[in-house]
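Bug: token stream looks shifted between consecutive jobs. Job 1:
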Amino acid sequence: MNGKLNGKRVLLADDHAMVRLGFRLLLEGEGAQVVGEAQDGETALRQYAELNPDLLVMDVSMPGIGGIAALERLLAWDATARVLMLSAHHDDVVPVRALRAGAAGYLCKRAAPETFIDAVAAVLAGRRYIDPELAQRVALAQLAGSSSPVDCLTDKELAVFLKLAGGCTVADVAEDFCLSPSTVGTHLYHIKQKLSAQNASELTLIALRNGLLEV
């Protein structure tokens, strides 16, 4: 089969099986070979080492260490790795984090299928790719430094914050990220301290004001 991605070997990392299936169909429709699928960051790193794909397409928010931490570990091991990061969040905080960590590209999951293929092709060709709808905001954020209060959070704190702000309980987050409830509680304490928030409702409000949650 001939296509834009003919013969390219791609590894998919996303914790939703239906999402991975959609990406697989799009990639294979353009001639790429999906050599593996992972549902968390640890599995993605293990499969990358075993399969040596041309490209890793990875979600930012996954159980365990999460996408950005997995990206940092991967690039520390293989500085030439090409990684396209995906996220459901339509803001500038998460893409700036991903690009600073070394991602070759960033795309919002709400992008059109043809935009996804263009992003994959660009990264495979050695070019940087930023979601067109976010490019200007990301560039301004990188030049001026993020003005978002959540920029003071660590990557793990940001991942926990997004879950809690979205309505998850501490127990939910602990199970999702394979952490103990006490560890999540510690993260929550630091998050509240850094953001001057008193409760979950205030965390949700901060997330909404910074474009980190769907209305």
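Job 2, same session, no restart:
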Amino acid sequence: MRLPWSGRPTASLFAQLLALIGISLVAAQTISLVMLFNLPPPAPDFYRVSELIATFRGAPPTFTERRPLTVKLVDDPPQQPMEGRMAPIIRHQLAAALGVPDERVVIAATSRFPVSDRRVFRIVRDRMAREGGAAEREEHFLIAPFDVAVRQPDGRWMVVRPEPAIGLDPWQQRIILWFLLSGLAMAPVAYVFARRLSAPIGLFADAAERLGRDPRAAPLSLKGPAEVAIAARAFNDMQERLRRYVEDRTAMVGAIAHDLRTPLTRLRFRIESAPEDSRAKMAADIDQMEEMISAALTFVRDATRAGERTPLELSSLLESVCDEMAETGADTEVERGEKVVLHGDPVALRRMFTNLLDNAVKYGGRARARVFLDAASAVVEIEDDGPGIPNEDRERVFEPFYRREPSRSRQTGGIGLGLAVVRSVARGHGGDVSLINRGGGGLTARVQLPL
């Protein structure tokens, strides 16, 4: 039976990812175009030749939007002298104004050609016009960074250069601000898309974990991309097949155990005519078989019946089981510890603890239990002082009807379903149980249950 898909599938995951990328690109380009057409173009720091001359003469001008010019005396002239058509003109203009030969003036480019090119020439000219610097003839200027040096009479060089920039220029700050604003504008859109795309994956993980605890859990119901719809249908089909498989096998075991009682009853009547010396042995075998059948039926009934799960406190539950066993003379003890609350089936957990405590008393003489938290799990440890279990048998003892002691009598421990029930209950709650041999002797049964 195919379980119905409970939500209308939306666009495919590929289409949603493509839409997210497309929206992001369009938004980024839109913001870039808005910035390009609305922000003024960045103007480089430029310095007129007249401002350089005033600085050499000891009267540097005051700048409001540009970095100030600094003056420094050095022993050697700056390297990388400027070349090009404008270099001799500017050098001659500086030398004439300062009254020195041209060869005593050096203009050096520290990182790039300091004279404006075609891309920034109009920007600088417009700014000079706004600042009132335009004259009948165009005034020459240099663009930072640069070094202008004039040799002094004592042989040293006076160097004028723009003050080194600290931090970002205003136009760079505006660009970064726009990037931050565009990122903030796209963050809600990306968050909504990310939550929408990741939510079905998280629900799949929860459903898989729930299926591990209970094959009879409700089928998966998701709304999301088309790929999620296909995966949900496959998951629900798998869960349904697992549920039928478990129920069919469990029903088969129960039916076999139930039907075996009829021939056993006939055998019990027929041994009445058997010889006296063999009658007792045959009756003991029949009693043992009936006990195994009763235990198997109880195990099947408990496995097929889903108990109601409620919040419960493990320490209190464990203490009540130990108190009941102590009333019958069993040596049991529970260490006082932290309160641990989880969502579970109290009847099944009580049976699990009873089986573990009963085994500890039978094979180890006494049982000491404690409850504590370990990360996101509750841990119950039950210790005894018995001989322990060989490593090769630590997993086999959880198999149904397996016993290390060949007898099946109640006096020597039962028929071998106690630990099978323990593991079934633990795994039904999403946890597990393990047996650990202690170094100083004795065995520790460790049950781990997720909170």
